[in-house]
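@here heads up, posting the sequence + SMILES for the flavin-adenine dinucleotide run so it's all in one place. Ping me if the SMILES looks off, I pulled it from an old spreadsheet.
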Amino acid sequence: VSGVARPRSVETVVVGAGQAGLMTSWFLRRAGREHVLLDRRPTLGGGWQDRWNAFQLVTPNFLTSLPGLDYTGPDPDGFMVRDDVIARFRSYAATIEAPVELDTDVTRLVALAPDGGENRFRLTTNRGSLDARNVVVAAGPFQVPHIPRVGAGFGPTILQVHAHDYREPDGLPSGGVLVIGSGQTGVQLAEELHEHGRQVVLAVGHCGRTLRRYRGRDSFWWIHQIAVHGAAVGAPLPSVSTLADGRARYACNPHLSGHHGGHDTNLRVMARDGIRLVGRLLGADGARATFAEDLRANLQFADGFFDERIRPLIDRYIERIGDPAPAGEVPQFAYEPPEVPELNLADEGIGTVLWSSGYRAAFAWIDLPVFDDLGLPRQVDGLSEVPGLAFIGTPWLVDMASANLAGVARDAETLVASL
Ligand SMILES: Cc1cc2nc3c(=O)[nH]c(=O)nc-3n(C[C@H](O)[C@H](O)[C@H](O)COP(=O)(O)OP(=O)(O)OC[C@H]3O[C@@H](n4cnc5c(N)ncnc54)[C@H](O)[C@@H]3O)c2cc1C
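bot reply: prediction finished. Complex structure tokens:
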């Protein structure tokens, strides 16, 4: 309409300036592509800013070698603390001169009616609208903290906190803590609370356990090698298209720790050392919690995970490249904790439930029919069914490495080349 200013127009808008957005920006800049990154946060550092105070990466520092900024620090095999990770991505943004606009919340994305012009999309933000030919959604793999419905049964005497909001043991009321969820975060937080003298009960779910080191290397070193070079030698990671059930994209990450120099986390060892294990939380009624009698089965699953899912990938890759890596051992530990069908949390002196139950996607602001039943985008190598609309960094975008530092640079390079 004449007299109405047209929105600003940019060739490519990247929504999100976390690591995935920044790496996408590096590849866009290298290709000479005009773009801008929008992030609703007031500061750079993406989701790393939501982690607890003592958080350390599970992936070794060498994986923070980013396109355009190698890791040259003193401890490539160490595990960076939260504030150093944040600082690293801030310095990355500065080094690559990423065109970031902070405090900019994208509240709606729609397709424009074809009018012969170049722009396909309009983004509404709290700072006005933008039109773009391409939109890359780098909004994070872990967006909204998820608490299962069963939590509604706990009474008001029980404080419920999601790991997203947990910062340190002293931030919780005194007394015991029921940690729910045995993925990477739950196991690390159970360990942290136990080390701080808290009584800890850990509700163990169907979650794997992986090894810190295997065949002479950190296991993430192998995963990264396979993610980047595996396909070329006929030993790729399983891809998203091979997943029998799409829900596996939100399966918990196998537990492991970067704390204390990096170490294996074995629930049986933790149980022997005083953390009480129970099965999956089934019900909550006031201060009463009931648990599935699946602890034994869940521990068996955790024990077998590396052997069944990870070890064959690494062994096959090593065989294909002819690496003389030493043989690997998978240590086992026999302690068998008892099943506990029910606990009265009040009687046990437990006043806090700490949910380590993961995250869900939150793409309601995208007004385009590109999502599946679980709310994740239907896409191939990041490209959605709508030309010009792409995603980066979502769980299993390509494979198990896509939502972390082992795979996102690889995915961003592929994506930008085909955008
Ligand atoms: C507890 C935990 C531990 C992890 N540990 C590791 C680890 O050790 N190693 C590893 O490699 N990976 C790890 N990850 C996985 C992953 O690397 C991180 O989640 C990482 O932060 C993902 O980066 P990202 O750029 O994809 O997303 P984010 O860091 O989440 O960045 C997305 C950005 O998009 C912005 N945004 C979203 N929606 C909008 C919108 N509508 N408008 C404007 N801005 C928007 C957000 O504000 C955010 O800043 C971990 C994840 C979690 C949850």
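MO: The pocket of flavin-adenine dinucleotide is lined by residues 15-21, 38-41, 46-48, 51, 57-59, 105-106, 138-142, 185, 365, 393, 403-405 (CB under 6 Å).
MO: One more: The mean pLDDT is 95.
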